[in-house]
C-alpha cells in the first residue's frame, strides 16, 4: 500500500506510514524510507515517532545538522501538545548541535513551564551573544519570563530591531530597523508597551 492511499482514520494512517517506511528499510532503500518519514511528519506533526525516525535516518547517513533541524522543528510542534516529548526531542537537537538557536528558543519556554527556569535562562544566555534583531528580542523576552526582574525587562525593552511595519521589497531590513530607532514617537510607544508587559509579568494582578 502506498502512503498516499492511507486510510481516513488517523490511527490507520499512522500505521500505514510506518509500514511503508519499514518496508523500504527492510529492502535497503533508506532514502525512500526517509521520504516517507518526512511526508508523515508533515501530515502528523504531533507524532514524535516520525520526527525521531527521520532524524535517525539522517544520522545513519552522517547528516547531523539535518537531524538536528528535524528534531528542532519536530520538538517545537510536538511540545505544543505533549510537553515532555517536545522537551526530549529538543534536548536531542541540542545534543547534536549545542547552541542550535531554534531548538533553544523552542525549549526554553517548555522548561519554564515545567518549573526549570534556571536551565531555561542558562540555555538562552549561551546563545544570546550570537543573536541580533527580532531573534535577540525573542530570546531576551524568554530570559525575562524565566527570571522576571526590572533589569531583565529593561534589557528586553531596549533591544534594537523591532520594526513597526514590514519593509518594502527594495528596502534593506537592517536600514529600516535603524531608522525606527530614531523615530521618537515610535520609540516612546514601544517603551510604553514594553513597560506595560513587564509590569504584567513582574506584578501580575490578582483575580478574586
Radius of gyration: 21 Å
Measure the end-to-end span. 58 Å
Structural domain tally: 2
List the helices and strands in order. HHHHHHHHHHH
Continuous helix count: 11
Low-confidence stretches: 1-8, 164-169, 171-183
CATH class of the largest domain: Mainly Alpha
CATH fold annotation of the largest domain: Serine Threonine Protein Phosphatase 5, Tetratricopeptide repeat
Largest sheet: none
CATH architecture of the largest domain: Alpha Horseshoe
List the defining traits of the structure above.
208 residues, mainly alpha, Serine Threonine Protein Phosphatase 5, Tetratricopeptide repeat, 2 domains, 71% helix
How would you characterize the overall build of this protein?
The chain has 208 residues and is an all-alpha fold. It has helices spanning 10-26, 30-43, 48-60, 64-79, 83-96, 101-113, 117-127, 133-146, 150-157, 173-181, 184-202. α2 (30-43) packs antiparallel against α3 (48-60), α4 (64-79) packs parallel to α6 and α6 (101-113) packs antiparallel against α7.
Note the topology.
Layout: H1 10-26, H2 30-43, H3 48-60, H4 64-79, H5 83-96, H6 101-113, H7 117-127, H8 133-146, H9 150-157, H10 173-181, H11 184-202
Short account of what is shown:
By secondary structure, the protein is an all-alpha fold. It is built from 11 helices and no strands. The relative contact order is 0.06.
Amino acid at each position: 500500500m502506498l502512503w498516499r492511499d492511507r486510510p481516513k482514520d488517523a490511527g490507520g494512517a499512522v500505521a500505514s506510514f510506518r509500514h511503508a517506511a519499514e518496508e523500504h528499510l527492510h529492502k535497503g532503500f533508506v532514502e525512500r524510507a526517509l521520504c516517507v518519514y518526512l511526508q508523515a511528519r508533515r501530515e502528523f506533526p504531533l507524532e514524535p515517532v516520525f520526527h525521531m525516525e527521520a532524524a535517525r535516518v539522517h544520522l545513519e547517513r552522517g547528516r547531523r545538522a539535518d537531524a538536528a533541524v528535524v528534531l528542532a522543528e519536530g520538538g517545537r510542534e510536538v511540545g505544543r501538545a505533549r510537553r515532555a516529548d517536545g522537551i526530549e526531542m529538543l534536548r536531542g537537537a541540542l545534543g547534536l548541535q549545542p547552541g542550535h538557536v531554534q531548538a533553544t528558543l523552542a525549549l526554553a519556554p517548555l522548561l519554564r513551564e515545567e518549573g526549570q527556569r534556571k536551565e531555561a535562562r542558562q540555555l538562552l544566555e549561551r546563545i544570546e551573544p550570537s543573536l541580533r534583531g527580532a531573534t535577540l528580542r525573542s530570546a531576551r523576552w524568554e530570559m525575562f519570563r524565566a527570571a522576571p526582574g526590572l533589569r531583565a525587562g529593561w534589557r528586553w525593552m531596549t533591544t534594537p530591531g523591532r520594526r513597526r511595519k514590514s519593509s518594502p521589497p527594495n528596502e534593506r531590513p537592517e536600514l529600516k530597523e535603524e531608522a525606527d530607532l530614531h523615530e521618537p514617537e515610535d520609540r516612546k510607544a514601544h517603551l510604553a508597551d514594553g513597560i506595560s508587559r513587564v509590569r504584567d509579568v513582574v506584578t501580575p494582578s490578582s483575580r478574586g
